[in-house]
From TrEMBL:
<keyword id="KW-0479">Metal-binding</keyword>
<dbReference type="GO" id="GO:0000287">
    <property type="term" value="F:magnesium ion binding"/>
</dbReference>
<keyword id="KW-0227">DNA damage</keyword>
<dbReference type="Pfam" id="PF21999">
    <property type="entry name" value="IMS_HHH_1"/>
</dbReference>
<keyword id="KW-0235">DNA replication</keyword>
<keyword id="KW-0239">DNA-directed DNA polymerase</keyword>
<keyword id="KW-0460">Magnesium</keyword>
<comment type="similarity">
    <text>Belongs to the DNA polymerase type-Y family.</text>
</comment>
<dbReference type="GO" id="GO:0003887">
    <property type="term" value="F:DNA-directed DNA polymerase activity"/>
</dbReference>
<dbReference type="GO" id="GO:0005829">
    <property type="term" value="C:cytosol"/>
</dbReference>
<protein>
    <recommendedName>
        <fullName>DNA polymerase IV</fullName>
        <ecNumber>2.7.7.7</ecNumber>
    </recommendedName>
</protein>
<comment type="function">
    <text>Poorly processive, error-prone DNA polymerase involved in untargeted mutagenesis. Copies undamaged DNA at stalled replication forks, which arise in vivo from mismatched or misaligned primer ends. These misaligned primers can be extended by PolIV. Exhibits no 3'-5' exonuclease (proofreading) activity. May be involved in translesional synthesis, in conjunction with the beta clamp from PolIII.</text>
</comment>
<dbReference type="Pfam" id="PF00817">
    <property type="entry name" value="IMS"/>
</dbReference>
<dbReference type="Pfam" id="PF11799">
    <property type="entry name" value="IMS_C"/>
</dbReference>
<feature type="active site">
    <location>
        <position position="103"/>
    </location>
</feature>
<dbReference type="InterPro" id="IPR017961">
    <property type="entry name" value="DNA_pol_Y-fam_little_finger"/>
</dbReference>
<feature type="site" description="Substrate discrimination">
    <location>
        <position position="13"/>
    </location>
</feature>
Length: 362
């Protein structure tokens, strides 16, 4: 049986800012540029008490917390701290799967440093992080990645929560189904229509029934409700794509999708800021009311440098959807693909991209 940790730095970007500037400690800090198109990259726990959350529009965060201190993000500094934390992980196991700058899965079934238990290993890692970076991290300890990720959020900030194999069913049964990754607002409503509010309710449905209703995701729901997750920790898996998508409560025409595309672009863009790699290809995904899936993409000469550029390309891709105006859409997604190392992309641009005006969609 595997012993998996999910370690998540507490309010990472905001905590780095508070650590480096004593005047910010104890104050509601929002890491974001000010402006109508800016989104929150991170919020301190003092700001979260007002309802401020990552990926929220900065103008809304300012309305919720007028006394918030807005700090522009410094990703170079955050990446340097992330590398420090990663090095601590690697002292304890070679099996480290980073999810972003501030979180990772670790397989400590056979730790590099002898330890009496996975919980002791988690505590040792958290202690080293505190000592070497003056920051705190929370950890989930469990037999698999799914359970460990839920557990890491249980005693935040600066806590540990353990899900022992014998307690998996008892732990999962009362949880709202929305705690299962992939269950968003729309899916939560569909499950509620079936009388499913908790993971325990979900466990009462057969795999065949869930698969018939929700396809392959239904089978995943069946497995997660039973705490089943066979995915191994995969070290050194570089980010290939990042996206955000949503299913509408009612089908919409193409001309009504702009607000949704802008909202999802903000969410996807905020997620891309957490990786050291750079994405270049903008992707628009649509699903019609008849479940036909369309994708349109564009790869500019240089990666999108701002949320505005990213959103502009995504909106322009709507012009490539050659379906009748009467077509209705049940889902839209916006993403960035073709991720490469920053240095590699810069070298390519210097060799092949001549200076000139910003590219437009053909």
């Amino acid at each position: 049986m595997r012993k998996i940790l999910h370690i998540d730095m507490d309010a990472f970007y905001a905590s780095v800012e508070q650590r480096d500037d004593p005047a910010l400690r104890g104050r509601p800090v929002v890491v974001a540029w000010r402006g109508a198109r800016s989104v929150v990259c991170a919020a301190s726990y003092e700001a979260r008490r007002y309802g401020v959350r990552s990926a929220m529009p900065a103008v809304r965060a300012e309305r919720l917390c007028p006394d918030a201190v807005f700090v522009p993000p410094d990703f170079a500094r955050y990446k340097a701290v992330s590398r420090q934390v990663r090095e601590i992980f690697l002292r304890h196991t070679d099996l480290v799967e980073p999810l972003s700058l501030d979180e990772a899965y670790l397989d400590v079934t056979v730790p590099t440093i002898p330890s009496p238990s996975a919980t002791a290993t988690a505590e040792a890692i958290r202690a080293r992080i505190r000592e070497e970076t003056a920051l705190t991290a929370s950890a989930g300890v469990a037999p698999n990645k799914f359970l460990a990720k839920i557990a890491s959020d249980w005693n935040k900030p600066d806590g540990v929560f353990v899900v022992k194999p014998a307690r998996v069913e008892a732990f999962l049964t009362p949880l709202p189904v929305g705690r299962i990754p992939g269950v968003g607002r729309v899916m939560e409503k569909k499950l509620a229509d079936l009388g499913i509010a908790t993971v325990g309710d979900l466990r009462g449905f057969a795999a065949e029934d869930l698969e018939r209703r929700f396809g392959s995701f239904g089978l995943r729901l069946y497995q997660r409700a039973r705490g089943i997750d066979e995915r191994p920790v995969q070290p050194d898996q570089p980010v290939q794509s990042i996206s955000a998508e949503d299913t509408f409560a009612s089908d919409l025409p193409l001309e009504a999708l702009e607000p949704e595309i802008r909202r999802l672009a903000e969410k996807a863009w905020a997620a891309t800021r957490k990786t050291e790699r750079v994405g270049r290809t903008v992707v628009l995904k649509l699903k019609t009311a008849q479940f036909r899936i369309l994708t349109r993409s564009h790869t500019p000469d240089a990666p999108p440098a701002s949320l505005a550029q990213f959103t502009g390309i995504a909106l322009a891709l709507c012009g490539r959807v050659a379906l009748p105006p009467s077509t209705r859409y049940r889902l839209v997604g916006v993403g960035l693909a073709g991720f490469r190392e920053r240095e590699e992309l810069l070298a390519q641009q210097e060799l092949f991209v001549a200076p000139g005006p910003a590219p437009t969609l053909p």
